[in-house]
Amino acid sequence: AVTTATMAPLTDLRPTPDDITGDALAGLSATPKRLPSKYFYDARGSQLFEAITRQPEYYPTRVEIALLDAKMAEIAEAVGPHAHVVEYGSGSGRKTLQLLEGLQDPVAYTPIEISRTTVLAATERLAEAFPGIEMLPVCADFTQPVELPEPAREPGHTLVFFPGSTLGNFTNDEAVALMRSMRETMGRNGQALIGIDLEKDTGVLEAAYNDAAGVTAEFTLNLLARLNREIGSDFDLDGFRHRAVYSRERGRIETFLVSQHAQTVTVDGRTFDFEAGEAMQVEYSHKYTDARFEDLAARAGLKVVNRWNDGDDWFGLRLLQP
Ligand code: AVI
């Protein structure tokens, strides 16, 4: 049971459930065909993503953790004391521990997550490690503004934490909309600490999304396995191959599932024809320059007030304010 002195009950803002069938049908009807990457993360997909973060070619997680370690004193100084830390995503991981340990007397911690069980499991683990920080988990869709629960101890301000360059999985317009919602959630004297993957050599980028062990390929194909299981589609997993390429023009890794031969797939009673070699788009992972990121932030009404990069300028943390 989740009953420690610092554990508040879950705030359930009842996010609209995903319409997987509707989203799959819409994406398969589009030209070119596409499927939304948010459906990668079922239980197996989340496991496979964890495995990706341990591959030698996938640098973002390792570099961000080292960056947080190296710069935590500066980050804590810039953030200031008594923050209500609001994490976008599950927050069970290493980076949350680093931040809550490193900040000056954070008052409360709120992970925001669409899955009730995930958000509760994450806060349960953290409650033990941080008995002095009030745990206020929220079940909600963080792409919309979120009315935050009020900590028992008055916080100095709200700090939104959005690590991992998850922002990069949204299109630029979606990223702006998300940061606008973030600005509303954090309030006038709030801040956001966002992890962003930076543009670099194409070989390094493409290797990170095409690891030699094939874990990323398995992660991508798991999307089709999930659809088959959950909405009764009949994708042939051997009939599609993972391909990830960097577009320097668009500043993003673009991941596709490529049909290996002409084939027909049935979803919810509707059929979709694939040509041999046809590429269905399944994920974007944007890689930012300072100019590109500052432009997106400005469109959302946010200013970059501090920036920290690793020594190679591979990954960055940005502190934003309205
Ligand atoms: C979760 N997200 C930031 C990862 C990324 O790098 O875009 C997802 C991923 N896709 C393939 N490898 C990792």
UniProtKB/TrEMBL annotation:
Which keywords does this Swiss-Prot/TrEMBL entry list?
A: Methyltransferase, Transferase
Which BP terms in the Gene Ontology apply to this protein? methylation
Keyword Heme recorded = no
State the source organism's domain of life: Bacteria
Q: What is its EC number?
A: 2.1.1.44
Kindly list the GO molecular function terms attached to this UniProt entry. L-histidine N(alpha)-methyltransferase activity
All residue ranges annotated as the Histidine-specific methyltransferase SAM-dependent domain in the record? 23-321
Gene3D superfamilies to which the protein is assigned, alphabetical: Vaccinia Virus protein VP39
Enumerate the PANTHER family for this protein: ERGOTHIONEINE BIOSYNTHESIS PROTEIN 1
The protein's name is: L-histidine N(Alpha)-methyltransferase
